[in-house]
Design brief:
Blueprint lengths: L1 E3 L13 H10 L2 E7 L3 H13 L3 E5 L13 H8 L5 E10 L7 H18 L3 E6 L2 H14 L19 E4 L5 H9 L2 E5 L9 H9 L5 E3 L21 H12 L3 H16 L10 E4 L2 E4 L19 E2 L2 E2 L8 H8 L7 E4 L9 H13 L4 E5 L3 H5 L4 H4 L5 E5 L5 H8 L3 H18 L2 E8 L5 H12 L2 E6 L2
Parallel strand pairs: 1-2, 2-3, 3-4, 4-5, 5-6, 6-7, 7-8, 10-13, 13-14, 14-15, 15-16, 16-17
Antiparallel strand pairs: 9-10, 11-12
Helix pairs in contact: 2-3, 4-5, 7-8, 8-9, 14-15
The structure holds iron/sulfur cluster (SF4) and zinc ion.
């Protein structure tokens, strides 16, 4: 199910056929709409629409363009409206130095006042930014420093982490700017601009960031995607935006929809937590989540947190037995490969891996093992000969070529486990053709040296996985 997180359904361009537009979108699979106000009047209208349709949610706020026209008491009204049960955010608020319809200092003042409301109400924000990324970043940073508890919910069974703080809608900055926003726990989203041939930076951002940080929007009636560019936009076209994002991300439409819906759940509380899964599909591969135990504790790993990957919940309460794993696979032949992965180290359950892998091979499937490479230490023997004939390919997390840094990243004895991991890679390469060592692209790791080490010294494939 698709979610249009930014659609101005009250706009007068929809006056003649508003209900048809909404139903057309619902028929296209859009099951939720977030309608942001741009001033007090449209915030009321957004709420009225949310009362009429179960699928519609409202955001209330004053757009930077309108900040010059603000009347006495408007900010107070926005605050009052934010208590309505279908208001999920403060927005759209922000800065627009492109049109400069309002003086910059006035825009900044109104932006700050509304960020204060978001903090008081512990609500996320929907931020408009145009040619103003530096000041937007500055003000958001200043807000977080001033209100460190904004969006700090008490720990839940799923997470002890800060909830996301908002979204930079139709993000107008570089990839580097987007990273800064993500580090501050904001998401980014793009409407139809993604489909415009001349919009290079949005496409670069949308193909570089992990999908976990992005959402879908149309910004209708503006920003219609190709092939409707220049015409009135409508929420049914969010499917075209999703299709383009899938292409840029190298994911399936199903992956985009599932992942962005989960992000909306985390940010706006719309929808429900997905139920935990043993087998989960991404692109045309099936991943097997057979344990949450691991001998390491990587600082970037969300194993003990929410453990959600592209909208799949991996927080299984108990380890499935071999029969349950096999049952969850179905027909292994329909997938490109079946991968032992998940938030845990599969070789901790080596016997289960071997039994399930044998069944997959007997039933015409292909098997990949994703591992930290510590299987020999964990099982106190050389496990490689036992994998031969059962596993077609192996991916090993290299993380770093420096043992000390490796130990720090993974929370283990760096010297001992780094040696074990490299030995495992060298051994596995003797028997299995398709071996890859991966690193997660975090700032402190030297990617090029890692590539050289993997390709020249170990002689296997190298892959750099994105962190953000
Ligand atoms: S080795 Fe993998 S599962 Fe284990 S803590 Fe690190 S990232 Fe998480
Ligand atoms: Zn808008």
């Amino acid at each position: 199910m698709l979610i249009d997180t930014h659609v101005h359904l009250y706009d007068k361009q929809f006056d003649d056929d508003r209900d048809e537009v909404i139903h057309r979108a619902i028929d296209e699979g859009v099951h939720a709409f977030i309608v942001p106000g741009i001033d007090v009047a449209t915030s009321h209208e957004a709420i009225a629409l949310s009362e009429k349709y179960d699928e519609i949610y409202a955001a209330v706020g004053i757009h930077p363009h309108e900040s010059v026209r603000i009347a006495n008491g408007d900010i107070e009204t926005i605050k009052k409206l934010s208590h309505h049960k279908k208001v999920v955010a403060i927005g759209e608020i922000g800065l627009d130095y492109h049109y400069d319809f309002s003086p910059k200092d006035q825009q900044q003042k109104i932006f700050r006042q509304q960020l204060q409301i978001a903090n008081e109400r512990n609500l996320p924000v929907i931020v408009h930014n145009r040619k103003a990324v530096d000041d937007t970043r500055l003000i958001l940073r200043e807000t977080i420093a001033k209100y460190p508890d904004w969006r700090n919910f008490p720990p839940t069974q799923y997470s002890n982490d800060t909830a996301p703080r908002g979204v930079l809608h139709c993000f107008d900055g570089t990839l580097e700017d987007a990273w800064d926003m993500i580090k501050m726990k904001f998401h980014v989203s793009f409407p139809g601009i993604l489909t415009f041939r001349n919009a290079r930076e949005p496409a670069r951002i949308a193909s570089s960031l992990s999908i976990e940080h992005m959402m879908l929007e149309t910004d209708a009636p503006y920003m219609a995607p190709a092939p409707h560019r220049g015409k009135r936009n409508e929420p049914a076209y969010v499917r075209l935006v999703a299709g383009k994002l899938a292409e840029l991300q190298g994911l399936s439409l199903e992956d985009i929809v599932r992942s962005t819906s989960y992000t909306v759940f985390r940010l706006f509380g719309i929808g429900t937590q997905p139920s935990p899964k043993i087998a989960y599909k991404i692109r045309n591969s099936l991943y097997l989540n057979i344990t949450r135990r691991c001998n390491a504790d990587c600082y970037f790993c969300d194993r003990k947190g929410e453990a959600v990957v592209k909208g799949h919940n991996l927080r299984i309460e108990k380890e499935p037995d071999v029969e349950e794993i096999i049952e969850s696979i179905g027909n292994p032949k329909v997938y490109d490969e079946v991968v032992f992965c998940g938030y845990g180290e599969p070789t901790i359950r080596l016997d289960a891996v071997k039994q399930v892998a044998r069944w997959i091979k007997e039933n015409g499937g292909k098997v990949r093992l994703n591992t930290d490479g510590h299987g020999d230490v964990i099982n106190k023997r050389n496990i490689v000969p036992e994998l031969v004939g059962l596993v077609d390919s192996v991916s090993i997390s290299l993380n770093s070529i420096d043992p000390e840094q490796y130990g720090k990243i993974m929370g283990i004895d760096g010297e001992r486990f780094h040696r074990a991991m490299v030995d495992f890679a060298r051994e596995v390469k003797k028997y299995i053709n398709d071996v890859t060592m991966t690193i997660v692209d975090i700032a402190e790791v030297d990617v090029e040296s890692a590539r050289k080490f993997v390709e020249d010294e170990v002689g296997v494939n190298f892959k750099n996985r994105q962190y953000f």
